[in-house]
């Protein structure tokens, strides 16, 4: 799933290529992806792009329509969605069917993009709204972790608000916006903390270390993704991971010095997390429900 760094890079990519351009094509190929019906997507045709923003993991293309005023094409790529950019958009229209294309948008210079989604579980969400806050999931987003508002004190308040596993708090979009499964694994490695650590166990020193890890991991990832074409972002993300998706490989260490241990995994019904016992749990492997069932 694209997370804050990749979505920020996509916003930058679109901002550089679309602001000032007129929308000439809007073709909905997967009606299940469209979550609003008024204003209609056709209202975007003839509108001029005025800006591109990111809200957590949501992308927001703002336009000025001569007939409808300010509108926002807002979308969430979910787990299997992506943006495919074209310097020369195919002339053939996007048709409903077996194609992964959910939405096609074209501009007056012949460029454009498709929103695509692989697999059978369709979760990509597209909204056309007068205000991004009209999308409930955006209105309920938590603090942006790279904003000035995200201080160690603010993080401390969030940790203390209710007792839960720290991995869950980092992924809760209503608490901190933009962090998902992959970057929470990376943050917890750098912070040298267990993904299952209770949030109310954090004192001031541990909170400061976690805050520093959040800022450092995300800042580094945003810098790595910045300026890359959309087609390269997925591979760049994978290459940059220290532990996420690297089960069984040597741990590179929380500070870049290999610790001698290997990356371990805990599996769930539809996801998994990766961590290093030496760096994060005092050398103790965490219980994996999948292995526990096999050992009974």
From TrEMBL:
Annotated CDD domains: BaFpgNei_N_1
InterPro entries per UniProt: FPG_cat, FPG_N, H2TH_FPG, Ribosomal_uS13-like_H2TH, Znf_DNA_glyclase/AP_lyase
Entry's transmembrane regions: none
One Pfam family in the UniProt entry: Fapy_DNA_glyco
Alphabetized PROSITE patterns for the sequence: FPG_CAT, ZF_FPG_2
Formamidopyrimidine-DNA glycosylase catalytic domain span: 2-124
Keyword Metal-binding: yes
Annotated keywords: DNA damage, DNA repair, DNA-binding, Glycosidase, Hydrolase, Lyase, Metal-binding, Multifunctional enzyme, Zinc, Zinc-finger
Biased composition (Basic residues): 236-245
Family, similarity comment: Belongs to the FPG family.
The name this protein goes by in its record: Fpg/Nei family DNA glycosylase
Organism in which the protein naturally occurs: Cellulomonas wangsupingiae
